[in-house]
Amino acid sequence: MFFDQFKGFNPQTNRWERYAECYGPIAYGGQTLNPIYQMCFNNDPLIALTSAQKHDWIRDHWKRYDYYIGLYRNDNGDWVWTDFDGSEIPLGNYQPCAPGYDASSDGDCVHANATSVDNTTISLWVPSTCYPTWSQLFCGTLGCDANRTDCAYL
């Protein structure tokens, strides 16, 4: 499996910036007893697309359009992401839902579906099952540094 470090262009500094997050795609097929948001290695989370910058990076860097993201409905019914330490992050304001879908739609996990808008392919969010029989996933992990060396699959 190949993971790559998330990076984005900062127009305020006119520079590319690297982040401490690394992401990579994995394909999953078959039945599971665990929900899709628990399918990454080492208890790492699925990608938290908390900004257009991350969303565009997946599209531009990996050329992927259909995949599960780490957004899911928790036991309280709230939409949350899982952080690298296992804590929950609230949904926030970035919510590119497909037409006809929103936070009140059925489904407890979210799949980014390819959609064509003005001859450009983008991925818009659709709530769906947490137990698919096949999917592309984007898992995340923290990047390696002097203090964190347990990232052998990067």
TrEMBL record:
InterPro entries: C-type_lectin-like, C-type_lectin-like/link_sf, CTDL_fold
The species this protein was found in: Acrobeloides nanus
Lineage: superkingdom: Eukaryota
Ranges of residues in domain C-type lectin: 18-130
Alphabetized CDD domains for the sequence: CLECT
Protein known as: C-type lectin domain-containing protein
Transmembrane segments: none
UniProt cross-references to Gene3D superfamilies, sorted A to Z: Mannose-Binding Protein A, subunit A (3.10.100.10)
